[in-house]
TrEMBL record:
The Beta-lactamase class A catalytic domain, residue ranges: 142-262
InterPro entries the UniProt entry points to: Beta-lactam/transpept-like, Beta-lactam_cat
Name the UniProt record assigns to this protein: Serine hydrolase
Alphabetical UniProt keywords: Hydrolase
GO MF annotations, alphabetized: hydrolase activity
Length: 446
């Protein structure tokens, strides 16, 4: 018996040691993989007769993982551009949840379209000075209507200080055109939930008259959010929103949303050492901003619920459209003068999260950013995601290419007839991000 055991013992002794299970991928590795899988360099370009995009687009994606109380526990930021065609991860300081490793420059459409030297940005183009020797460089896409989040934030800061109240009437005259009088909250609500431009003009002019626009950039810089800037808006019309003058980056926008979400203790520290807490906004201000973002109608970018069931659309973050926008008779959504025409009820019934967010869209730029919270019955996740890009409705997918007609000019864009305004690679990225966050947070709570 013993003799027969010895060979077995010898075999055990000579066997290779058991392999340790592989370490889970870091959040930055997972986000980089999700961006790479999106194939953003395969979209079609209306301005080049529907041919494939000439270069990888500029894409800036940030992700903050939050614990149950809203504290950040991990962060990732990925940049994609012709400088980084396979994407690159941004080094993030866990004390500031920010970065100094990127030289961000202002958007220049002529530079993007090849009318200027791609690498020809000067110090005057820098969003934050002193980063000429930074390891990474990135021309930050115009945020489109995502910048309305900055207007809403500044209004609420003035409300907290007693300079404004949400109930006070504001009579908006746009030059000689009378746009009417409403309480401030009735300008705020459509600006955020439907991205109404007229309401944004009204509030921008209000900020100019109250001296609130002048200090906005300095206030954001003091919070360590120096790439968030609103420059050049007209004190007469509230308009003049121009690429190259209004700036946002994904990581700074994610931290602004972190402040709006709130959480105990120090949320981050600025490079100067200042501790930033949720008290930068009153609880009432944060709850109000959250309620506006939660009431968002335009679920058509990172989430795509308004396109529910369309075979040409991709599922995005599985978020519900608020009931106020859904026609109880047929389930369709009409918002921002657009009738999306799809029955959203099946997707709303299957929704797993609420997405408190703001989108942005023009011909040349597409963006979305917000706070994701799981519904009580769904797998837990709590995170902030921000997407900025130069992928506006000029760029589209082969699935809608038959709707493109360059001979019609503005009326020939595919979104006009399909109501699919963003390349569906964006909601597909949103779905990948939600899936990876669902898996990460499940592992931590099992």
């Amino acid at each position: 018996m013993l003799l027969t055991m010895f060979p077995l013992l010898g075999t055990e002794a000579s066997a290779a040691p058991r392999q340790k299970p592989p370490r889970p991928a870091s959040l930055e590795q997972e986000l980089l993989s999700a961006v790479r899988q999106s194939g953003f360099d395969e979209v079609l370009d209306f301005q080049h007769n529907g041919g494939r995009i000439a270069h990888p687009p500029n894409v800036d994606v940030a992700l903050l993982e939050l614990d149950a109380d809203g504290r950040p526990v991990a962060a990732a930021n990925v940049l994609l551009s012709r400088d980084y065609p396979k994407g690159v991860t941004v080094p993030i300081d866990p004390k500031t949840w920010g970065t100094t490793a990127v030289r961000y420059t202002r958007w220049d459409l002529e530079r993007w379209d090849g009318q200027k030297d791609w690498a020809g940005a000067t110090a005057e183009d820098d969003l934050v000075p002193g980063r000429e020797k930074a390891r990474l460089r990135f021309m930050a896409p115009y945020p489109a209507s995502l910048f309305k989040l900055l207007i809403a934030f500044r209004v609420m800061r003035l409300v907290d200080r007693g300079v404004l109240t949400l109930a006070q009437p504001w009579h908006f005259m746009r030059e000689a055109v009378d746009r009417g009088e409403r309480p401030v909250w009735r300008w705020m609500e459509p600006m955020v939930t439907e991205s109404d431009n007229g309401s944004t003009e009204a509030l921008a002019k209000l900020l100019h008259e109250k001296g609130g626009m002048e200090g906005l950039n300095a206030e954001l810089a003091e919070l360590g959010l120096g790439t968030l800037q609103v420059n050049g808006t007209s004190p007469v019309t509230g308009r003049s929103w121009n690429p190259g003058s209004i700036h946002m980056t994904a990581l700074d926008t994610a931290r602004l949303l972190l402040l709006i979400e709130g959480g105990p203790g120090v949320l981050w520290r600025t490079p100067s050492g200042r501790e930033v807490t949720a008290a930068e906004l009153s609880q009432a201000a944060r709850v109000y901003l959250q309620s506006l973002l939660a009431d968002q109608a335009l679920h058509e970018a990172l989430s795509s619920t308004v396109l529910c069931g369309d075979p040409k659309a991709e599922p995005g973050i599985p978020a519900a459209v608020p009931r106020r926008w859904v026609d109880p008779k047929d389930g369709t959504v009409t918002a921002a003068d657009t009738a999306f025409g799809r029955d959203t009820r099946p997707c709303n019934a299957a929704a797993e999260v609420t997405f408190l967010h703001k989108t942005g869209l023009t011909e040349n730029y597409g963006s979305d950013g917000g706070i994701v919270r799981s519904m009580p019955w769904a797998s837990r996740r709590h995170y902030i995601v921000v997407f900025l890009s130069n992928l506006g409705y000029r760029y589209y997918d082969p699935s809608v290419a038959s709707a493109a007609d360059p001979s019609k000019g503005e009326d020939g864009f595919p979104y006009v007839s399909t109501k699919i305004s963003y390349t569906q690679r964006i909601p597909a990225l949103g779905r990948r991000i939600d899936t990876l966050m669902k898996a990460r947070q499940r592992e931590k709570h099992e």
